[in-house]
Each structure stands twice: as C-alpha cells, then as structure tokens.
Amino acid sequence: QVHLAESGGGSVHAGGSLKLSCVVSGLPFADYCLGWFRQVPGMERELGAIAGIDDDSITYADSVKGRFTISKDNGRNTLFLQMNDLTPADSAMYYCAADTFCNGDQDYWGQGTQVTVSS
User: Fold this and answer.
1) CA nearest 64: which of 43, 36, 23?
2) Would you state the pLDDT for residue 55?
3) Three-point CA angle 7, 9, 14, nearest 5°
4) Of 5, 21, 22, 65, whose CB count within 10 A is highest?
5) Cβ(34)–Cβ(24) under 8 Å?
6) Mean pLDDT, the chain, integer
7) How far apart are the first and last CA of the chain?
8) Which among 44, 4, 40, 13 has a CA at the least distance from the CA of 114?
C-alpha cells in the first residue's frame, strides 16, 4: 500500500523558513517523479516543485523559484522542500505527490501539511 506522509509545516513570520518532509512507502522511491503542490481553500491546487528521477530533472513554479529547493534522499525514501524567504502568499496546505510515469499526472498524494506565513 502506497503511503505519503508530510510533516514540517507550521506558522512563521514573513521572511522566515520552513523545511517540509515527505516520507514515502509502498513504491520504488528512486523510480518515481515526486513533487510538492500547494492549495489555498477555494483555489485550484498548484505546482510548487517537481523532482524527476535524475538529479538534474527539477522544475519550479515561477512563484517559488529562487526561494524553494526540492531534494530527495533515496536512502530514506524522503522528499524535502526547503522554503526560504516566505511570504503570506505562500500560506497554503502543502501536499507531496508521486507520478508513476513522470507525465504530470500524479498518482498518489499525501494528506498535506499546513503552512501559514504572517506579515
């Protein structure tokens, strides 16, 4: 059974940092494209960052580029998202996801971790 478990969310002031983690089980971690998405109530879920199978296959949304860093630890089956210079616009529920065929269709989702940034 596939399970994705996010952690690391919380409340910070603008300019602060958080590091999210997502522990993945039930699938061959190193063979999947993995990503972070975020969603504000009433809005569509949007991409944050995607890490492909290769270390150089990384994509960031323009809104987080230069501030967020996605990384993977294949030995620990864990996906990370280092978030720096946070702004209130980054406040959202953050989800990790796994994409079996790396085609943009996420097959598995975690339950999310809340990030709240105050001004």
Assistant:
1) 36
2) 65
3) 155
4) 22
5) yes
6) 94
7) 40
8) 40
Q: How far apart are CA 117 and CA 106, in angstroms?
A: 27
Look up residue 104 and give its two tokens: 């943009």
Strand 33-39, strand 46-51: pairing: antiparallel
**Reported confidence tier of residue 43, pLDDT bands at 50, 70, 90:** very high
**What one-letter code names the amino acid at 27?**
L
Question: What is the CA angle 116-47-16, rounded to 5?
Answer: 30
Q: How many other CB atoms are found less than 10 A from the CB of residue 119?
A: 7
Q: Which residue's entry shows tokens 């946070």? A: 86
Pairing of strands 33-39, 92-99: antiparallel
